[in-house]
User: What shape does this take?
Amino acid sequence: MPNQAPSATRDEPEAATGQRPAIRLSGLRKHFGDVHAVDGVDLDIPPGEFFSMLGPSGSGKTTVLRLIAGFELPTEGTIELDGRDVSRLAPFERDVNTVFQDYALFPHMNVMQNVEYGLRVKRVPKQQRRERALEALKTVRLEDYGSRKPAQLSGGQRQRVALARALVNRPKVLLLDEPLGALDLKLRQAMQLELKQIQRDVGITFVFVTHDQDEALTMSDRIAVFNDGRIEQVGPPEEVYERPASAFVAGFVGTSNLLGGRGAESVIGRPGLFSIRPEKIRIDGQLSEPAAAGETSATGTVTDVVYAGATVRYSVALDAGGRLSVVRQNTDGVFADGRVRLSWRNEHSFQVQ
Ligand code: ADP
Ligand code: MG
Assistant: This one.
């Protein structure tokens, strides 16, 4: 039997799992005059996690990242990295690296020199420098591009060089602030998958900032949804999408219907505000059919049909009051009838704040 002392301090509450968080934010606040950029954030990020901070512009994501990196000091609260309070330490005293959107490579240096640069500053011997830079370039699959200048690379390749430049320092934590923001959609989607693969390969904790919900859903182990300097919800992508904790999250992550008032009371059977994803709703013309067991149904009139190729989006005004948007796979054409019945499984409509 291991003789475990009870953990009395907040330093070791993970004794049970044996895992200390890579990052712990406690009561974190950052005020710029009257602007409460970060307004009370508590968060644990375990080692090796791909963690995303998702939220609209101005919700405080970059400020949280800059606080973790040490480019800003907190107004209140603490930042721990691997159990050590770094709240007041300078950036270079923290075992983190940051990749920004404007990845600012040195244009006069070739790829290898760009990647080596940080190690040269740290006076790592030449031979070792080369080896580590080559290893970092291999990780991002650019080992054959060492002698190119940044201008001779595509946007995606330049982004990968920036990543290699951060990875070469072998940080425990990599902070990425909208690193794919400057890329066009196709390249961006390709890079999302690559970045996720690289993170799996190196096993470093990634904290990834984005305002793009698809990006966050695609890449992350867990997502924190930011609103106004606070976290509204933290969880795996499925949970945040399937079970949004608030009307804000339901609206920001994917599209969602919100049904309230008279419509909710009549259709759901109790008052409140309910969220239903458009793709969970079926649409048919069987107006007088009762709802199947475990399902909810409502009749209404189609007021708008948007044809989007693979899917068709219907807007339906419910007879009971309120409006629901329905997305249907375009398997057998557009459902054109005016009067329709909508139905969904009971668990797909749920109450939100
Ligand atoms: P996000 O990255 O989510 O878009 P930011 O963290 O950049 O949000 O900004 C959060 C809020 O803090 C915004 O209202 C922004 O204008 C404000 N802010 C950020 N940095 C500064 C600063 N240095 N001085 C004053 N206000 C700032
Ligand atoms: Mg930002």
